[in-house]
Amino acid sequence: MATQLQHETTSFIKKQFSITLICDRVNAPANIGSIFRIADSFGVEQIYFCGENITVVSKRMQRTARATHEIIPYQQSDDIIPIIDQLQSDGYQIIALEITENSVPIGTYEFFANHKIALVIGEENLGISEKVLTKATKIVHIDMYGTNSSMNVATATGVALYEITKQVIADEK
User: Fold this and answer.
1) Strand blocks (E) in the chain
2) CB–CB of 140/109 below 8 Å?
3) DSSP code of residue 109
4) Which of 7, 103, 130, 154 has the most Cβ atoms closer than 10 angstroms to its Cβ?
5) For the whole model, what pTM was predicted?
6) DSSP state of 43
7) Is 67 left (phi over 0), alpha (psi -120 to 50) or beta?
8) Alpha helices for 44-119 (secondary structure H)
9) Angle formed at CA 46 by CA 43 and CA 49, multiple of 5 degrees
10) Would you say 23 and 121 are in contact if contact means Cβ atoms under 8 Å apart?
11) Closest by CA position to 47, among listed 24, 13, 14, 81
């Protein structure tokens, strides 16, 4: 019989990656809370919430985040473009997670340990804005095999961060 481990008894090694999340108009409190938890799970260094009238901290977000919003540094900005421009000038690759006519499957794009990554995720219904897509170093998507052509933004973020961190760890070896 296997015993379920608790937070204090896992053998996971704490690690932070040079990965920043940029949320383009993501505004649902449950998604924001989930994104904090996912960011903590995958060692993300910081999150930017961009867009007008975004309320990051709310009771619903706090219930979902389970205090990870107190661990992961985050900032808010009405305008996403200066954030992207600054991160690019700081040497970050801007990777947009979106299905477009020229996006590539995330598993086929190579992520390296010595590269700083800014992963852009998009608003729940409209995705990443066109002006942001034009600034991306690369646009990647998650291959899906059902009828639907999209998945929840927090779920997609988890899948993408799993693939990115898996590749970065392999490159470190």
Assistant:
1) 19-24, 46-50, 74-77, 92-97, 104-105, 116-122, 138-141
2) yes
3) S
4) 154
5) 0.95
6) T
7) left
8) 59-65, 80-89
9) 130
10) yes
11) 24
| Other C-beta atoms lying within 10 Å of the C-beta of residue 113 | 13
Contact 43, 67 (CB under 8 A): no
Summarize pLDDT for 58-89 with one digit per residue, the tens.
999 999 999 999 999 999 999 999 999 999 99
Of 73, 69, 62, 35, nearest to 159 (Cα)?
35
Contact 131, 81 (CB under 8 A): yes
- Measured at the CA of 20, the angle between CA 137 and CA 38, to 5 degrees, comes to 120
Of 59, 47, 52, 56, whose CA–CA distance to 25 is shortest?
Answer: 52
104: confidence class by pLDDT, cuts 50, 70, 90 = very high
Residue type, 140: V
Tokens of 135: 């600034």
* Contact present, 3 and 38 (Cβ < 8 Å): no
